[in-house]
Amino acid sequence: MNIIGIIPARYASTRFPGKPLVDINGKSMIQRVYEQALKAALLNYVVVATDDDRIANHVKEFGGNVVLTASNHQSGTDRCAEVVSKESAFDIAINIQGDEPYIDPSQIDLLASCFQEADTQIATLIKEIKDNEELFNNNTPKVLLNTYREAIYFSRATLPFLRGIPSEKWLEHHKFYKHIGIYGYRSEILKALTGLPVSPLEKAESLEQLRWIENGYRIKTAETVVETLAIDEPKDLQKVNHLKQNFKSNG
Predict the structure, then answer these.
(1) Cβ-Cβ contacts under 8 Å for 69 (sequence gap 6 or more)
(2) pLDDT tens across 101-135, in order?
(3) 3-state SS of the chain: helix, strand, coil percent to 5?
(4) What whole-number distance in Å separates Cα of residue 11 and Cα of residue 167?
């Protein structure tokens, strides 16, 4: 398998303009993500996908690979699909979030390993929920699985509902999972996904992956025990400032 790791990066973020170029302990956000991705053993190539010259020039300055993509993409998935159409040598594409400066390379490899099974179309990561604050946080998408460890639904609500059990005791009676937002796709599947219209469930939950499920695509999951930390807005920078001394792979 030839596997490409793609890091979509846009400058015009509503909540945090210029986020890919923000300084994280002496390096830009996008450089840290890129360097962590390079440490993944199963990736054959890593590239940043952006529509902004400032980001593209910066990536070139630190020696990274970059592809300029169209400015009208609605999602990182669409941006990844354009890269795959240009980089046709790759069988598998891994969509790596550009706002996780300390992403663990082992998570990328765990996701890539899902494609050792020939019938895997799409793959993503999940993590067991351990506390009630996270369980009932509507900003944390939950994942429901079938017996084949495939995702059958994603929701911002707390699912499943445990009838007859007080909510504060739900974790004692059922194993709940949250979604870790990194995806892998077979290249031909990724190209097909971009042609799908917005679906009713996707619109309701504002979760793109529901569109794929509604159209019959299967999403394989792999369970990680590693916590991720995404930078969604400026105040989140405080969370990563103390990680420099504790994070083993920050370089």
Answers:
(1) 49, 50, 51, 79, 82, 83
(2) 999 999 999 999 999 999 999 999 999 999 999 99
(3) 35, 20, 45
(4) 41
| Token pair in block for residue 36 | 């962590």
What integer pLDDT is reported at residue 250 of this predicted model?
A: 43
Q: pLDDT by residue (tens digit) across 54-77?
A: 999 999 999 999 999 988 888 889
- Domains of the chain as residue ranges with CATH: 3-230 (3.90.550.10)
Which residues neighbour 212 within 8 Å (Cβ) at sequence distance 6 or greater?
122, 193, 196, 219
Interatomic CA distance for residues 110 and 112, integer angstroms: 6
Place of tokens 């946080």: 137
Overall average pLDDT of the 79-98 stretch: 93
Taking a C-beta distance cutoff of 8 angstroms, is the pair 138, 207 a contact? no
pTM given for the model = 0.91
Distance of CA 89 to the CA centre of its chain: 22
Q: Where are the alpha helices (DSSP H) in the chain?
A: 29-38, 53-61, 76-86, 105-113, 132-135, 170-173, 187-193, 200-205, 209-214, 237-240
Both tokens of residue 84?
Answer: 């795959």
Q: Kind and range of the H or E element at 139?
A: none
Please count the residues of the chain: 251
Percent of the chain with pLDDT over 90: 79
DSSP state of 193: H
Can you tell me the distance from the alpha carbon of 49 to that of 52, in angstroms, rounded to the nearest whole number? 9
